[in-house]
Design goal:
With 652 residues, the chain is of the alpha/beta class. It is 54% helix and 12% strand. The strands form 5 sheets. Strands 5-4-1-6-7 form a 5-stranded parallel beta sheet, sandwiched between helices. The chain is elongated and about 105 Å long. Residues 632-637 have low confidence and may be disordered. Keywords: Hydrolase.
């Protein structure tokens, strides 16, 4: 028997391990997330038909900004400096309820009685404990925006409103809590602990009927199907079931986040997505929801980490590299003003050109070798023009080289590389001019700086490494550059390991050296997963081709073709990200326990979408998202694909 149980546990652990590593396919959630609530005005009109309207409190009139009621106790334990506070607080309450039931037949207890037990058995000062817990409730309780609108509409019509709740807070405490959430002007408040009977038993409804209703028609609005619907109707009341936001949102949220940040995240998102208060066309847009639900916590956590690193290292400025730094900078500037930031126009291709002597291998890989697999064949002329080396064409043609020959094999690609190496002095001169223009662009940005962060999404580290090389070695500026990325490249390249090893580049989410299980999952389908993150981080402007010196001696920035088809989606995603950050800060910005986002928590929501919402959210929202497969394209020639094309080619 024991052996059978042991094997069952082992298999369960193995299954969970596979899920964490992304080695087991998770089941797709096929339904589309929406609140499904009737409009608040429609509900209010329905309720007007009754003489008295009764409301439940928690999860109906009031929402907590944490996903479980007992998660408030984490904050109390932190304030009091006590380990295991949540467990102690729950056990003392249950113990007391059991004792009360044995003595009186009722499980109703008061806040004061609970803390008498806490003082007796746990050593918590009762007065201090009650004060801290109630302050925590005031802090983490907000008005349900949907129900508040219903409540206020009913008040404006002069309806009789009562509030009926099963709770250990007496009327004194509950009146303060309701008032802090903006609920005033109701006619009566009935709390179970004051009457010794609960809604769950049905007896509190009886008391209200006998002492208050006097035969008037009544409807009760609440979130619990047993307590607020079944028991109310058994006493002859009508009911309206308002399913709580966390039950409705549960299947759409990842369960493997930390107990603190996970609770805060789920609550913030469920308030937005499931309360019924936020139903504009913008908020129903899948791209906006992707930004709010999956992108917001990712960008918030990353930006917090960037700022923390910058502060610890006394950095002078944070440089957000285009295009991925666009939304990061907006969030950073919204949150922080102590260390300034700049948005720096740069791209992988531009960086490779300007550091060609240092990055020759990668330059050839990007511009020559990758062209071999292009669906639209590249000629030698095409390759050189894409590299901005059209000035070399006459030299090659003079030597009898047919520049219209197609580069469609590895052997031909090798010949192109040899041609470039034969006239490397000319190649280097072209790109040196570009580097000088970039230096001119960077001088005012770096002015007065001795240490800056160069921030990118990832994944190979080309831009941060190139900037470090140019600033520190090529230009010999008195300024240190530290690269920062969300994640670094998959194992077969390993090109970031030396720079990560010496701290030149730092990663937030994962690298070959930390959070290995995240890296393994992410790079199981690296092109798709990278793109899912880049939907969030990209900017609504074209990629940089190069820097050039203008006729007047000043620099000019040249850009690729704009993917204008994507800009509306990108802006909606970014609005979702910003709205999440604002909401999360509003609810938890002054709570260290819930504010700082660990890397694992930042990644879980986007991972959950990639695993379980890929068809119904990601493909549906971004199937027609276009991208240039070979950035560094040609005049009149674009190698454009859609995300659906990419998925088909990758077999997902």
């Amino acid at each position: 028997m024991y052996s059978k149980f042991k094997n069952k546990v082992k298999n369960k652990i193995k299954t969970i391990g596979k899920r964490i590593l992304g080695m087991e396919q998770s089941k797709e959630i096929i339904s589309t997330e929406k609140s499904g609530r009737v409009k608040s005005t429609v509900l209010a009109r329905r309720l007007l038909d009754y003489d008295v309207i009764s409301f439940d409190i928690f999860d109906t009139l009031i929402l907590r900004t944490l996903s479980k009621p007992t998660d408030v106790f984490m904050s109390v334990g932190q304030k009091l400096g006590m380990l295991n506070y949540t467990t102690m607080r729950r056990e003392m309450e249950f113990r007391l309820r059991d004792e009360k039931e044995a003595e009186t037949g009722s499980r109703e207890v008061t806040f004061e009685e609970i803390y008498e037990e806490m003082e007796k058995y746990c050593g918590v000062d009762a007065e201090l404990g009650m004060q801290e817990e109630f302050q925590a409730e005031l802090k983490y309780c907000i008005a349900n925006p949907y129900m508040q609108e219903v409540f206020n509409l009913l008040k404006s019509y002069g309806k009789t409103i009562i509030i009926v709740s099963d709770m250990y807070f007496s009327k004194k405490w509950m009146t303060k809590l309701l008032s802090s959430c903006g609920y005033e002007g109701y006619d009566e408040l009935f709390i179970s602990c004051e009457h010794g009977f609960s809604k769950r038993s049905g007896k509190l409804y009886q008391i209200v009927s006998e002492k208050y209703l006097n035969g008037r028609s009544v409807i009760h609005v609440g979130d619990n199907p047993t307590v607020d619907v079944e028991m109310a109707e058994k006493q002859g009341w009508k009911s309206f079931f308002y399913e709580d936001i966390h039950t409705r949102g549960k299947k759409y949220r990842p369960s493997l986040m930390s107990s603190s940040v996970g609770s805060a995240y789920r609550a913030v998102v469920n308030i937005k997505m499931q309360s019924g208060a936020f139903e504009s066309e913008k908020e129903k847009d899948l791209a906006y929801q992707y930004g709010y639900i999956n992108g917001g916590i990712l960008i918030l956590g990353y930006v917090q980490w960037i700022h923390r690193q910058a502060k610890e290292e006394n950095m002078d400025k944070v440089l957000f590299i285009a295009r991925d730094g666009w939304i990061m900078k907006q969030v950073y500037d919204y949150l922080y003003d102590d260390i300034p930031s700049e948005y720096v126009y740069l791209s992988r291709n531009a960086a490779l050109k300007m550091t060609c002597d240092y990055n020759r291998y990668e330059l050839f890989r990007q511009f020559v070798e990758r062209r071999v697999d292009s669906e639209k064949p590249y000629t030698i002329r095409d390759v050189l023009i894409s590299m901005e080396l059209g000035s070399i064409l006459p030299l090659l043609e003079k030597d009898g080289i047919r520049t219209e020959d197609v580069v469609d094999t590895k052997e031909k690609a090798e010949k192109v590389k040899e041609m470039l190496l034969d006239c490397w002095e000319h190649v280097s001169a072209v790109y040196e001019s570009s580097a000088e223009a970039f230096h001119q662009y960077m001088e005012p940005i770096l002015a007065g700086c001795h240490h800056v962060a160069a921030v990118d999404t990832g994944w190979r580290g080309t831009c941060p490494a190139a900037m470090k090389y140019m600033v520190e070695k090529k230009w010999k500026e008195d300024c240190r550059v530290t690269g920062m990325m969300m994640g670094s490249c998959k194992y077969k390249f390993n090109n970031t390991i030396p720079l990560i090893g010496d701290g030149s580049i730092r990663t937030y989410l994962f690298s070959p050296q930390h959070n290995d299980h995240l890296a393994r999952f992410h790079y199981n389908k690296n092109l798709i997963h990278n793109t899912c993150i880049e939907f969030i981080t990209t900017a609504p402007h074209p990629s940089v081709t190069s820097f050039v010196k203008g006729a007047d001696g000043n620099y000019e920035i040249r850009f690729e073709y704009p993917e204008q088809e994507n800009y509306e989606m990108t802006e909606n995603i970014h609005q979702g990200v910003l709205d999440f950050v604002k909401d999360y800060r509003k609810y938890h910005g002054d709570s260290p326990l819930f504010w700082e986002i660990p890397a694992l928590d930042a990644y879980w929501p986007i991972r959950f979408a990639m695993e379980r919402r890929f068809e119904t959210v990601i493909k549906k929202a971004f199937g027609n998202y276009v991208y240039n497969k070979y950035v560094g394209g040609l005049e009149g020639k674009r190698d454009m694909d859609t995300f659906l094309d990419m998925c088909r080619k990758e077999g997902v």
